[in-house]
Design a protein that fits this description.
- With about 675 residues, the chain is mainly alpha-helical.
- It is about 70% helix and about 0% strand.
- It is built from 35 helices and no strands.
- The longest helix has about 30 residues.
């Protein structure tokens, strides 16, 4: 049938061909044929009806609504077309228009029940939960009449479960969905609803169990959907947004699984989960998948992530989290002007999609750029409010434990954890204001004030360690905070940030604990060797960065002979150790060396200078395709691609060496 047009169809066969295409779910081809036919007979009832049906199946709901609107005008006596128009408008998220059309059918007893259901769905989507609940209860009480689409008890309970979920009553929603699932047998949509309710109540294991059921059924019943093939590197064509794909709930299940893994900080698993879902072209992706792709690949592809979130914000509808996440990411990357612009341009979304806490936090972050003192006061007010909440919740936990009320303990602990996760970013934003001013003593003072709540929080402990390290006279105290972080991951030490390991080694060396430093470095080397054996092509920089930071330490103390030699040796072999991060540390040492040489503050032996030149020649050779700096994702003026390489910068450094020592004469 490929390339079939109306001109090639024998007389009398047109209707049969169109119905065969619809039977085989080849709706796009049917649309092509029907479109041509309607150009000749624009008032054809059969043609418009079939075209509307095909558009609906293709999820082109606005176009389907247009077809049904024309039919309603041509045949006002057939009120089912108004119902179909209202349903298509609802699916297209045109809620006011759908409500207006549906209202015209309320007086017809034949459609009363279906219109009430549609109105309930519209109010639910618009966030009018009391209105939706009132309509659902009307239907459950039998007010919907006995038309062919009559409300049954099961659907009514599911609808009540959805309302309970929206109201934040996740446990009650779980009970409704579980009862419905037990009564109906396996249904992908119900399994997904239950998994979502478990996820929202933090029962991740139960949520993953139901997600696994959905995926297992989907793979077994529809192998043609190609689950997991993209992750395995198999080149497969898009399966499209078919009705079958929608009915399996596979896309929803994979998105929810990715969200759970992301919450559990299994970031690589979360990324892989998104590629496991049935393959679709990027233009076919639903808003939730696009949002999750942007979020989970932000570190690796920030420019692409910002583009996706900005695109989603222009769509109707978009995931409500998009607005807050885009603003937070703008602040993270210090695009405060862009965050302020988005807030100003979308004032109508601010009150609907941002909590008072998030709005106040973003407002303070944006103020940091122009008025850091004012921003600190705003953050301090927010921190004060949150500490009061934390104290109140601590008291609730203690009382619940005293009363041996396990459910109340669990609820209070969850609320405490949520509040603490809000408090930590506020605290860090306050600390960063003074960190940027290099007032490390004040940063330490801010952290000391929060010890009551944060002493077990990894982010807090890590930042306390950093600020103690930066004061250069508190290395022993810094070790006390760095050591537990490293020991926690000692069996998988490469999961620890390289700079944490480097700072701990430097602290050991400065406090004359050289044996501990050497033992830690041996452990890192052993793990790197094992990883290289398992994956020979993978670049691992941990030990290299530790040695670079130690070399930097000696350079900072004026011992350039040893420091520069350590830096040079740390980057061997160059094809595995030379990267943007490692080059950053190396070039800082060389620039410091050149500055002191140009001021005649130090003199290097010729052999060391020759070693430096040879090192830079190696970097020039191996650094052709390695960026010298990672550019900010939204910069309008990009660096020249030939200049943003390690090769280019190493040539510049070599030229400076020649100039300073007079070899150019």
């Amino acid at each position: 049938m490929a390339g079939l047009s109306g001109a090639h169809i024998p007389d009398g066969e047109f209707t049969a061909v169109v119905y065969r295409l619809i039977r085989d779910s080849r709706y796009a081809e049917a649309v092509q044929l029907l479109g041509g036919e309607l150009q000749r007979c624009p008032r054809s009832r059969a043609g418009l009806s079939l075209l509307g049906y095909c558009y609906y199946r293709l999820q082109e709901f606005a176009l389907a609504a247009e077809c049904y609107e024309q039919l309603g005008q041509l045949h006002p006596e057939l009120e089912q077309y108004r119902l179909y128009q209202a349903q298509a408008l609802y699916k297209a998220c045109l809620y006011p228009e759908a409500t207006r059309v549906a209202f015209l059918l309320l007086d017809n007893p034949a459609y009363h029940g279906r219109v009430l259901r549609l109105q309930a769905a519209i109010k639910y989507s618009e966030g009018d939960l009391p209105g939706a609940k009132s309509l659902v209860e009307q239907l459950l009480s039998g007010e919907g009449g006995d038309d062919s689409g009559g409300e049954n008890e099961l659907d009514g309970q599911v609808n009540l479960g959805c309302l309970l979920y929206k109201e934040g009553q996740y446990e009650a929603a779980c009970a409704k969905f579980l009862a419905a699932l037990q009564a109906s047998g396996y249904r992908p949509d119900l399994s997904y609803n239950l998994a979502l309710a478990y996820y929202s109540s933090r029962h991740y294991a139960s949520a993953l169990k139901h997600i696994a059921d959905i995926i297992e059924h989907g793979i077994r019943q529809h192998p043609e959907l190609g689950v997991g093939m993209t992750t395995e590197g198999i080149d497969v064509r898009s399966v499209g947004n078919t009705l079958v794909l929608h009915q399996t709930a596979l896309v929803e299940a994979f998105n929810l699984k990715a969200a759970i893994e992301y919450q559990l900080r299994n970031f690589e698993v979360a990324q892989e989960t998104l590629t496991d879902m049935p393959p679709r072209a990027e233009e076919e992706l639903d808003p939730v998948t696009l949002h999750n792709q942007a979020l989970m690949n932000m570190d690796a592809r920030p420019t692409e992530g910002f583009e996706k979130l900005q695109f989603l914000l222009q769509q109707n509808p978009f995931p409500p989290e998009t607005f807050g996440n885009l603003l937070l990411l703008y602040c993270k990357y210090e695009y405060f002007d862009l965050a302020a612009d988005v807030l100003a341009e979308n004032a109508h979304l601010t009150y609907r999609l941002l909590t008072p806490y998030l709005y106040d936090f973003l407002d303070a972050m944006i103020t940091c750029q122009t008025a850091p003192e004012e921003a600190f006061i705003k953050l301090d007010g927010l921190a004060g409010m949150l500490t009061e909440q934390l104290r109140r919740l601590t008291k609730q936990v203690q009382e619940a434990r005293h009363n041996r009320d396990d459910e109340a303990v669990k609820k209070a602990v969850n609320e405490y954890d949520d509040t603490l996760e809000k408090y930590i970013p506020v605290l860090m934003a306050q600390a960063k204001i003074y960190w940027n001013l290099e007032n490390y003593a004040m940063v330490e003072k801010i952290f000391r004030k929060s010890v009551e709540f944060c002493n077990d929080h990894d982010v807090w402990k890590l930042n306390v360690a950093h600020v103690l390290f930066m004061q250069e006279n508190k290395y022993k105290e810094a070790i006390g905070f760095y050591e537990p972080i490293v020991k926690k991951h000692y069996d998988n030490i490469l999961n620890v940030s390289a700079i944490v390991l480097a700072n701990l080694c430097v602290s050991y060396i400065i406090t004359s604990q050289n044996e501990e430093a050497e033992e830690l470095m041996r452990k890192i080397e052993k793990e790197e060797e094992q990883l290289s054996y398992d994956d020979p092509d993978k670049k691992i920089y941990h030990l290299c960065i530790v040695n670079l930071v130690i070399g930097t330490l000696y350079c900072a103390k004026g011992n350039y002979d040893f420091g520069i030699s350590r830096v040079i040796k740390s980057l061997e072999p160059y094809h595995k150790k030379l990267g943007t991060d490692t080059w950053y540390y190396a070039k800082r040492c060389f620039l410091s060396l050149l500055e002191n040489m140009s001021k005649h503050m130090i003199v290097l032996r010729d052999s060391v200078i020759q070693e430096c030149v040879q090192f830079l020649e190696h970097c020039e050779l191996y650094g052709r395709n390695i960026p010298a700096v990672i550019e900010q994702p939204l910069e309008e003026e990009r660096m020249h691609s030939g200049k943003n390489t390690v090769t280019y910068e190493s040539r510049q450094l070599k030229a400076l060496i020649y100039e300073i020592i007079g070899w150019n004469m």
